[in-house]
Design goal:
It is a single chain. The protein is α+β, with helices and mostly antiparallel strands. It folds into two domains: 86 residues, Phosphorylase Kinase, domain 1; 129 residues, ATP-grasp fold, B domain (D-amino Acid Aminotransferase, Chain A, domain 1, 2-Layer Sandwich), CATH 3.30.470.20. It is 27% helix and 35% strand. The protein has five helices and 15 strands. The strands form three sheets. Strands 8, 9, 10, 11, 12, 13, 14 and 15 form an eight-stranded antiparallel sheet that branches. The chain has a five-stranded antiparallel sheet with strand order 1-2-3-7-6. A hairpin with a 2-residue loop joins strand 12 and strand 13. The radius of gyration is 17 Å and the shape is globular.
Length: 226
Protein backbone atom coordinates (compact mmCIF):
# COMPACT_ATOMS: atom_id res chain seq x y z
CA UNK A 1 0.00 0.00 0.00
CA UNK A 2 1.08 3.56 -0.70
CA UNK A 3 0.47 6.16 2.02
CA UNK A 4 -1.04 9.19 0.29
CA UNK A 5 -2.34 11.26 3.20
CA UNK A 6 -1.92 11.51 6.95
CA UNK A 7 -5.04 13.06 8.44
CA UNK A 8 -6.29 14.07 11.88
CA UNK A 9 -8.60 11.10 12.32
CA UNK A 10 -7.45 8.64 9.63
CA UNK A 11 -4.64 7.85 7.22
CA UNK A 12 -5.31 7.15 3.54
CA UNK A 13 -3.52 4.51 1.47
CA UNK A 14 -3.75 3.72 -2.23
CA UNK A 15 -4.36 0.05 -3.01
CA UNK A 16 -2.93 -1.80 -6.04
CA UNK A 17 -6.41 -2.13 -7.59
CA UNK A 18 -6.91 1.66 -7.63
CA UNK A 19 -9.21 1.82 -4.63
CA UNK A 20 -8.21 3.49 -1.36
CA UNK A 21 -8.00 2.29 2.23
CA UNK A 22 -8.90 4.45 5.22
CA UNK A 23 -7.08 3.51 8.43
CA UNK A 24 -9.03 5.06 11.31
CA UNK A 25 -7.21 6.49 14.32
CA UNK A 26 -8.23 6.96 17.96
CA UNK A 27 -7.96 10.76 17.62
CA UNK A 28 -10.51 13.25 18.97
CA UNK A 29 -10.93 16.65 17.30
CA UNK A 30 -11.90 19.91 18.96
CA UNK A 31 -10.42 23.23 19.99
CA UNK A 32 -7.00 23.50 21.62
CA UNK A 33 -8.25 26.62 23.45
CA UNK A 34 -10.80 24.64 25.48
CA UNK A 35 -9.57 21.08 25.04
CA UNK A 36 -13.17 19.99 24.50
CA UNK A 37 -14.23 17.63 21.73
CA UNK A 38 -16.19 19.20 18.89
CA UNK A 39 -17.28 17.57 15.62
CA UNK A 40 -16.39 20.81 13.85
CA UNK A 41 -12.98 21.11 15.50
CA UNK A 42 -9.84 21.63 13.43
CA UNK A 43 -7.32 20.26 15.88
CA UNK A 44 -6.63 16.96 17.60
CA UNK A 45 -7.29 17.50 21.30
CA UNK A 46 -6.70 13.98 22.52
CA UNK A 47 -6.83 10.26 21.94
CA UNK A 48 -9.40 7.84 23.29
CA UNK A 49 -9.06 4.08 22.84
CA UNK A 50 -11.84 2.76 20.63
CA UNK A 51 -12.71 6.03 18.90
CA UNK A 52 -11.36 4.84 15.54
CA UNK A 53 -13.31 1.61 15.69
CA UNK A 54 -16.43 3.54 16.73
CA UNK A 55 -16.10 5.91 13.78
CA UNK A 56 -15.66 3.03 11.36
CA UNK A 57 -18.46 0.91 12.81
CA UNK A 58 -20.99 3.75 12.68
CA UNK A 59 -19.86 4.88 9.21
CA UNK A 60 -20.22 1.34 7.88
CA UNK A 61 -23.71 1.06 9.34
CA UNK A 62 -24.90 4.29 7.74
CA UNK A 63 -23.24 3.67 4.37
CA UNK A 64 -25.04 0.32 4.24
CA UNK A 65 -28.30 2.06 5.19
CA UNK A 66 -27.84 4.64 2.41
CA UNK A 67 -27.05 1.87 -0.07
CA UNK A 68 -30.56 0.49 0.59
CA UNK A 69 -31.93 3.89 -0.47
CA UNK A 70 -29.85 3.90 -3.69
CA UNK A 71 -27.74 6.86 -2.56
CA UNK A 72 -24.39 7.02 -4.34
CA UNK A 73 -21.31 6.85 -2.13
CA UNK A 74 -17.64 5.90 -2.35
CA UNK A 75 -18.01 3.14 0.25
CA UNK A 76 -17.02 -0.39 -0.79
CA UNK A 77 -16.47 -2.43 2.39
CA UNK A 78 -14.96 -2.33 5.87
CA UNK A 79 -13.07 -4.48 8.35
CA UNK A 80 -13.86 -3.19 11.81
CA UNK A 81 -11.36 -5.56 13.46
CA UNK A 82 -8.59 -3.73 11.59
CA UNK A 83 -10.10 -0.21 11.70
CA UNK A 84 -10.08 -0.19 7.89
CA UNK A 85 -12.52 0.93 5.22
CA UNK A 86 -12.10 0.47 1.47
CA UNK A 87 -13.51 3.17 -0.79
CA UNK A 88 -13.54 3.97 -4.49
CA UNK A 89 -11.37 6.85 -5.71
CA UNK A 90 -13.06 10.23 -5.45
CA UNK A 91 -12.22 13.75 -6.59
CA UNK A 92 -12.93 16.51 -4.06
CA UNK A 93 -14.30 19.93 -4.90
CA UNK A 94 -11.25 22.16 -4.53
CA UNK A 95 -9.40 21.12 -1.38
CA UNK A 96 -12.63 19.90 0.17
CA UNK A 97 -16.04 21.20 1.16
CA UNK A 98 -18.15 20.30 4.18
CA UNK A 99 -21.94 20.29 3.99
CA UNK A 100 -23.76 20.87 7.27
CA UNK A 101 -27.39 20.46 8.32
CA UNK A 102 -28.47 22.02 11.61
CA UNK A 103 -31.63 21.10 13.50
CA UNK A 104 -30.88 23.15 16.62
CA UNK A 105 -28.76 26.21 17.35
CA UNK A 106 -25.56 25.10 19.09
CA UNK A 107 -21.80 25.54 18.81
CA UNK A 108 -20.51 27.80 16.04
CA UNK A 109 -24.05 28.71 14.96
CA UNK A 110 -24.70 30.43 18.30
CA UNK A 111 -21.23 31.99 18.29
CA UNK A 112 -22.03 33.62 14.94
CA UNK A 113 -25.72 34.39 15.31
CA UNK A 114 -26.20 34.60 19.08
CA UNK A 115 -27.63 38.11 18.73
CA UNK A 116 -30.74 36.52 17.23
CA UNK A 117 -30.90 33.05 18.79
CA UNK A 118 -30.00 31.19 21.94
CA UNK A 119 -28.52 27.78 22.63
CA UNK A 120 -30.95 25.00 21.80
CA UNK A 121 -33.36 26.98 19.62
CA UNK A 122 -34.95 24.74 16.95
CA UNK A 123 -33.85 25.27 13.35
CA UNK A 124 -35.60 24.14 10.13
CA UNK A 125 -32.87 21.81 8.78
CA UNK A 126 -30.61 24.75 7.90
CA UNK A 127 -28.06 23.92 5.20
CA UNK A 128 -24.57 25.41 5.26
CA UNK A 129 -21.35 24.90 3.30
CA UNK A 130 -17.87 25.51 4.66
CA UNK A 131 -14.44 25.32 3.07
CA UNK A 132 -12.07 22.73 4.54
CA UNK A 133 -9.38 25.17 5.60
CA UNK A 134 -7.94 24.72 9.09
CA UNK A 135 -5.84 27.89 8.84
CA UNK A 136 -8.94 30.03 8.27
CA UNK A 137 -11.18 28.00 10.60
CA UNK A 138 -13.34 26.50 7.84
CA UNK A 139 -15.08 29.68 6.61
CA UNK A 140 -18.74 29.36 5.55
CA UNK A 141 -19.47 30.14 1.90
CA UNK A 142 -22.55 30.91 -0.18
CA UNK A 143 -23.58 29.33 -3.48
CA UNK A 144 -22.53 32.51 -5.29
CA UNK A 145 -19.05 32.42 -3.75
CA UNK A 146 -18.64 28.74 -4.60
CA UNK A 147 -19.59 29.46 -8.22
CA UNK A 148 -17.30 32.50 -8.41
CA UNK A 149 -14.36 30.46 -7.08
CA UNK A 150 -15.11 27.66 -9.57
CA UNK A 151 -15.67 25.17 -6.78
CA UNK A 152 -19.32 24.32 -7.48
CA UNK A 153 -21.73 25.37 -10.19
CA UNK A 154 -25.15 26.57 -9.06
CA UNK A 155 -26.83 23.38 -10.38
CA UNK A 156 -24.26 21.26 -8.49
CA UNK A 157 -24.93 23.28 -5.34
CA UNK A 158 -28.68 22.67 -5.62
CA UNK A 159 -28.13 18.96 -6.30
CA UNK A 160 -25.83 18.53 -3.30
CA UNK A 161 -28.19 20.52 -1.08
CA UNK A 162 -31.05 18.15 -1.90
CA UNK A 163 -28.84 15.08 -1.43
CA UNK A 164 -27.46 16.39 1.88
CA UNK A 165 -30.88 17.13 3.37
CA UNK A 166 -32.15 13.69 2.29
CA UNK A 167 -29.12 11.83 3.68
CA UNK A 168 -29.11 13.73 6.96
CA UNK A 169 -32.87 13.22 7.26
CA UNK A 170 -32.39 9.46 6.98
CA UNK A 171 -29.73 9.55 9.69
CA UNK A 172 -31.96 11.76 11.85
CA UNK A 173 -34.92 9.40 11.50
CA UNK A 174 -32.77 6.36 12.29
CA UNK A 175 -31.45 8.04 15.43
CA UNK A 176 -34.95 9.14 16.44
CA UNK A 177 -36.13 5.52 16.23
CA UNK A 178 -33.60 4.82 19.01
CA UNK A 179 -34.76 7.70 21.19
CA UNK A 180 -31.86 9.93 20.09
CA UNK A 181 -31.97 13.50 18.78
CA UNK A 182 -29.71 14.67 15.95
CA UNK A 183 -28.67 18.30 16.59
CA UNK A 184 -26.35 18.87 13.63
CA UNK A 185 -24.30 16.81 11.19
CA UNK A 186 -21.70 17.40 8.50
CA UNK A 187 -21.03 15.28 5.41
CA UNK A 188 -18.78 15.51 2.37
CA UNK A 189 -19.28 14.99 -1.34
CA UNK A 190 -16.95 14.47 -4.25
CA UNK A 191 -17.04 12.95 -7.71
CA UNK A 192 -16.86 9.18 -8.06
CA UNK A 193 -16.64 7.95 -11.64
CA UNK A 194 -17.60 11.47 -12.70
CA UNK A 195 -20.79 11.54 -10.61
CA UNK A 196 -21.49 13.41 -7.37
CA UNK A 197 -21.40 10.96 -4.45
CA UNK A 198 -21.12 10.95 -0.67
CA UNK A 199 -17.52 10.51 0.52
CA UNK A 200 -15.44 10.46 3.72
CA UNK A 201 -17.32 9.10 6.78
CA UNK A 202 -20.58 9.30 8.75
CA UNK A 203 -19.26 8.93 12.27
CA UNK A 204 -19.85 10.13 15.85
CA UNK A 205 -17.19 12.80 15.26
CA UNK A 206 -19.24 14.35 12.45
CA UNK A 207 -22.44 14.95 14.38
CA UNK A 208 -23.93 16.10 17.66
CA UNK A 209 -26.51 13.75 19.12
CA UNK A 210 -28.45 14.20 22.36
CA UNK A 211 -30.20 11.69 24.58
CA UNK A 212 -32.61 13.04 27.17
CA UNK A 213 -31.27 16.54 26.51
CA UNK A 214 -27.61 15.66 27.03
CA UNK A 215 -24.88 15.29 24.41
CA UNK A 216 -23.61 11.77 23.85
CA UNK A 217 -19.87 11.28 23.53
CA UNK A 218 -18.20 9.35 20.70
CA UNK A 219 -18.18 5.93 22.29
CA UNK A 220 -21.58 6.15 23.98
CA UNK A 221 -23.18 7.07 20.65
CA UNK A 222 -21.41 4.40 18.62
CA UNK A 223 -22.50 1.68 21.04
CA UNK A 224 -26.13 2.54 20.33
CA UNK A 225 -25.77 2.26 16.54
CA UNK A 226 -25.51 -1.33 15.33
Amino acid sequence: MELVKTGKTKDVYKLPDGNYLFKFKDSVTGSSATGESDPGGNQVVGSVAGVGSAALSMSSYYFELLKKHDIAAHYVSSDISKNEMIVRPAVSFGKGLEFVVRYKAVGSFVRRFGLYCKEGDPLPAIFEVTLKDDEREDPPVTSEILAALNLLTLPQYDDIRQKTIKICGLVKDDLASRGLELIDIKVEFGKVDGNIALIDEISPGNMRVYKDGKKLDYLALSKLIK
